[in-house]
Amino acid sequence: xxxxxxxxxxxxxxxxxxxxxxxxxxxxxxxxxxxxxxxxxxxxxxxxxxxxxxxxxxxxxxxxxxxxxxxxxxxxxxxxxxxxxxxxxxxxxxxxxxxxxxxxxxxxxxxxxxxxxxxxxxxxxxxxxxxxxxxxxxxxxxxxxxxxxxxxxxxxxxxxx
Length: 161
Prior knowledge:
Layout: H1 2-18, E1 30-31, H2 36-44, H3 49-61, E2 63-64, E3 70-71, H4 77-109, H5 114-119, H6 123-132, H7 136-146
Antiparallel strand pairs: 1-2, 2-3
Helix pairs in contact: 4-6
Family: Belongs to the PsaF family.
Transmembrane segments: 83-101
Subcellular location: Cellular thylakoid membrane
């Protein structure tokens, strides 16, 4: 046990001393309206609505790099919500789909012909599973706290090898 702790301590010290500290300051991005590369891109773009409107918005609101392309820095909280909102929505939808399928399969397991209910979907049962899945974060928390979400150690099969 001491050897393991010593090895972990040595690994942590080596890892902590070799990785450079990341800088969170944005020193390379400038407002797009002041970027020469962005201005050149804007001048060479076709004169249509689909190019003019975005270029005007980028010049007014966004920061550009040395390549003249707009970037979305996450060093300010107001910009972080631009990324966190889609991530949160994606995780909610993915969890909703998974939870509704999980609850449907758990409900069909107790039926007389579970294999047939997996092939031919029982629509009332599926709609019930979908409506329950709207609150999947709360249901997952409830099942986790009650111990139903995870399997006990004695329920997990171990290979004889």
